[in-house]
Specification:
- Residues 1-24 form the signal peptide.
- This protein is an alpha+beta fold and 239 residues long.
- It has a single domain (43-238), classed as 3-Layer(aba) Sandwich (Pathogenesis-related Protein p14a), CATH 3.40.33.10.
- It has helices spanning 56-83, 103-117, 151-157, 184-192, 195-202, and strands at residues 3-9, 12-20, 131-132, 135-139, 167-177, 208-215, 228-238.
- The strands form two sheets. A five-stranded mixed beta sheet has the order 1-2-5-7-6, with helices on both faces.
């Protein structure tokens, strides 16, 4: 079940949202996306490098699928916003050492940590996670149990707040496993059919969004099922 875990911090309204799917979830129950017929890369199934030939062409194909995911999610999200007259969200390229990092860097790090630590999902004996507010049976995917980082602290770590007189950030997460549940279409469909996630996507206050995907499931409920992919989506407004 999705849940909304709002937090308020100085200078920022922080909404923590999470979602996870299992293979038994009926795709037919989800409303179709507005941009499903116009956005390229909707159905990219992120595969590991080992799934491609060990050639230059194979490496290029691996990188292409990786690079297609974020633009596909952005296109789908903006199609949903356009249908309601909302302004499109933007994403900016991270300049690394040559300039300021973006929220995309924070999202990518959190996705990688989530797959490495696998703390999402149900609270179980011996599992290192912080239970979410309002649902103590589920781990909070927005609080890294190893570092204690939150969406707010991750945004601050890349210098987001230092460039703004006021700012807001929010985070959606998603873990899917099985070919039909790991695509950009699957992630955005799940979010749009969950009220708190949909509200973050359609929130007119936000001006930018970054969606990063990591191979593997942050939720151990996926077991050994492949492919498995974890998404972290960060929204921002810097004023």
């Amino acid at each position: 079940m999705p849940f909304l875990s709002p937090r308020v911090a100085t200078g920022a309204l922080l909404a923590g949202l999470t979602g996870a799917v299992v293979l038994a979830q009926p795709a037919a129950a989800a409303a179709p996306l507005k941009g499903a017929g116009t956005c390229a890369g909707n159905d990219v199934v992120y595969q590991p490098k080992s799934a491609f030939p060990g050639t230059r062409e194979g490496l290029a194909a691996f990188l292409r699928q990786q690079l297609a995911i974020e633009p596909a999610v952005l296109c789908l999200v903006n199609a949903e916003r356009a249908a309601l007259g909302r302004q499109p969200l933007k994403r900016y390229l991270s300049l690394g050492k040559k300039g300021p990092l973006t929220l995309g860097s924070a999202a990518a790090r959190h996705a990688a940590d989530a797959v490495r630590l696998r703390w999402w999902g149900q609270v179980t004996p011996g599992k290192n996670c912080r239970p979410t507010q309002g649902d103590p049976g589920r781990c909070d995917p927005h609080v890294n149990p190893q570092t204690g980082s939150t969406p707010l602290s991750r945004a601050q770590a890349v210098g987001y707040s230092s460039r703004c007189s006021s700012f807001a950030v929010a985070e959606n997460t998603y873990a899917g496993w099985g070919a039909s549940q790991v695509t950009p279409r699957a992630a955005v469909t799940w979010w749009m059919n969950s009220k708190p996630h949909r509200e973050a996507i359609l929130n007119p206050a936000f001006t930018e969004v970054y969606t990063k995907a990591a191979l593997g499931s942050a939720d151990p409920a996926a077991g050994s099922i492949t492919p498995a992919v974890t998404y972290v989506q960060m929204f921002g407004r810097c004023g």
